[in-house]
């Protein structure tokens, strides 16, 4: 498992493009027949993907976490952005179609990912964070998520926010997870640009034309930087970094957060007048 350390805004303002990409962008997710995981020290998030083909894939053992097994002290949110897949969690089997999600509770000993059809493999994106209590596994379809409409045509940011792992949908210790989908013709998933002093966040960009990119805006609000993000790449967002982005076409993003609270709206909005 690759490790990404925390960073200080005073240091990040001197990063080159390559350093920004090395620290905050994950470019090699969704490899055929592989699990890929990145351990991010901010809120101890593990961000990863599993793309099983003919054989089931299992997360690594708990050695790197100092635990008997991967999920001993963690919970996980899984979103399928590929063909039909099956997640097995301690004997229970969950079939996930495109856009279905699964919450997996702490203490799940046997976890595996497989594809119903290796020619059209499942693409599981997962985010795992430390947990203190075991809650039951819950499958959540897009129709079961909380739906919020946001934005306006005038600002090219009309979008739908689907909150899958949210206290009103299923219990979790820290994890909040969902998907934001931009309408055709919309390219911004902000404003509001915001930080979360109390939470780290991770984003996966997907559901976009292969040739499109998203100019992801990050950094301290007075020292903005950007990352060019391509389909199925993920971004790590420390608590002090503002976030939002503009695509060369429409796209969706999966967001996941963990930290002090589970209030989706707990954002420190950055006024456009203050952004530099
Ligand atoms: O479009 C949006 O607004 C979002 O997607 C919200 C972000 O993902 C977010 O940063 C939630 O904290
Ligand atoms: Zn946010």
UniProtKB/TrEMBL annotation:
Record keywords, A-Z: Isomerase, Metal-binding, Zinc
Keyword Transmembrane helix attributed: no
UniProt xrefs under CDD domains: cupin_KduI_C, cupin_KduI_N
SUPFAM superfamilies registered for this protein in UniProt: RmlC-like cupins (SSF51182)
Pathway: Glycan metabolism; pectin degradation; 2-dehydro-3-deoxy-D-gluconate from pectin: step 4/5
The EC number(s) this enzyme carries: 5.3.1.17
UniProt: Zn(2+) binding residues: 194, 196, 201, 243
Family the UniProt entry places it in: Belongs to the KduI family.
Record's protein name: 4-deoxy-L-threo-5-hexosulose-uronate ketol-isomerase
Protein species of origin: Bianquea renquensis
Underlying gene: kduI
């Amino acid at each position: 498992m690759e490790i990404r350390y925390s960073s200080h805004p005073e240091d990040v303002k001197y990063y080159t493009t390559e350093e920004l990409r090395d620290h905050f962008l994950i470019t090699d997710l969704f490899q055929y027949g592989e699990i890929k995981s990145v351990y991010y020290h901010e809120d101890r998030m593990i961000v990863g993907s599993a793309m099983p083909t003919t054989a089931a894939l299992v997360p690594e053992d708990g050695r790197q976490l100092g635990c008997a097994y991967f999920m001993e002290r963690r919970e996980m949110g899984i979103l399928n952005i590929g063909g039909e897949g099956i997640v097995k969690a301690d004997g229970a089997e969950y079939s996930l179609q495109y856009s279905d999600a699964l919450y997996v509770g702490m203490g799940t000993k046997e976890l595996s990912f497989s594809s119903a059809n290796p020619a059209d493999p499942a693409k599981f994106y997962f985010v795992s964070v430390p947990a203190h209590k075991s809650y039951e596994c819950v499958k959540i379809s897009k129709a079961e998520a909380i739906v919020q409409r946001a934005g306006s045509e005038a600002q090219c940011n009309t979008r739908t926010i689907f909150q899958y792992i949210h206290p009103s949908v299923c219990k979790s210790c820290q994890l909040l997870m969902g998907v934001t989908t931009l309408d055709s013709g919309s390219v911004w998933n902000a404003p509001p640009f915001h930080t979360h002093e109390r939470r780290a966040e991770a984003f996966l960009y997907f559901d976009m034309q292969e040739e499109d990119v998203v100019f992801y805006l990050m950094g301290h609000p007075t020292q903005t930087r950007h990352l060019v993000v391509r389909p199925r790449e993920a971004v790590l967002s420390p608590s002090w970094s503002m976030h939002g982005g503009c695509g060369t076409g429409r796209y969706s993003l999966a967001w996941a957060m963990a930290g002090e609270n589970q209030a989706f709206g707990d954002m420190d909005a950055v006024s456009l007048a203050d952004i530099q």
